[in-house]
Automatic annotation (TrEMBL):
Lineage: Eukaryota, Metazoa, Ecdysozoa, Arthropoda, Crustacea
Coiled coil: none
Organism of derivation: Petrolisthes cinctipes
Domain Methionyl/Leucyl tRNA synthetase: 30-129
Matching SUPFAM superfamilies: Nucleotidylyl transferase
Family named by the database record: Belongs to the class-I aminoacyl-tRNA synthetase family.
Protein known as: Methionyl/Leucyl tRNA synthetase domain-containing protein
PANTHER family with a match to the protein in the record: LEUCINE--TRNA LIGASE, CYTOPLASMIC, LEUCYL-TRNA SYNTHETASE
Length: 138
């Protein structure tokens, strides 16, 4: 792996590098990369904005300073999920897995409780009473 091969694979240059690597292999690597790039949306937790997501932007602009089409076009920062207005935590016992919630409330009860949980950057609050009453109303 030479700098020229690296640059070809990751779209720094369009000319084939001088290398012992077969052209088909180079094209396959470049196509694999192109399948995933550019990234049009990165979804992550709001707690990662000041570090991971900031460096995510820095890294892309540093690697492709003149190829703006390789830069991320969107970041979605979501909040955390509360359970009955309390932080979910295995250590405190206030915890509900997706499988357990589906077993207990079914898909429709889950949908109703999640739709009621909130849709802003604020932490969503899954309320078991909403899921229970939704199941009963259905």
């Amino acid at each position: 792996m030479t700098p020229e091969v690296w640059d070809y694979i990751f779209h720094q240059t369009n000319s084939l590098p001088k290398t012992a690597i077969k052209k088909e292999a180079l094209e396959k690597m470049r196509n694999e990369f192109t399948y995933w790039y550019p990234v049009n949306l990165r979804a992550s937790g709001k707690d990662l904005v000041p570090n991971h997501l900031t460096y995510y932007l820095y890294n892309h602009t540093a690697i492709w300073p003149t190829l703006k089409e390789m830069w991320p076009t969107g970041i979605h920062a979501n909040g955390h999920l509360l359970l009955n207005s309390e932080k979910m935590s295995k250590s405190t016992g206030n915890f509900l897995t997706l499988t357990d919630a589906l077993d207990k409330y079914g898909a429709d009860g889950m949908r109703l409780a999640l739709a009621n949980a909130g849709d802003s950057i604020e932490d969503a609050n899954f309320e078991t009473q909403v899921a229970d009453s939704g199941v009963l109303r259905l």
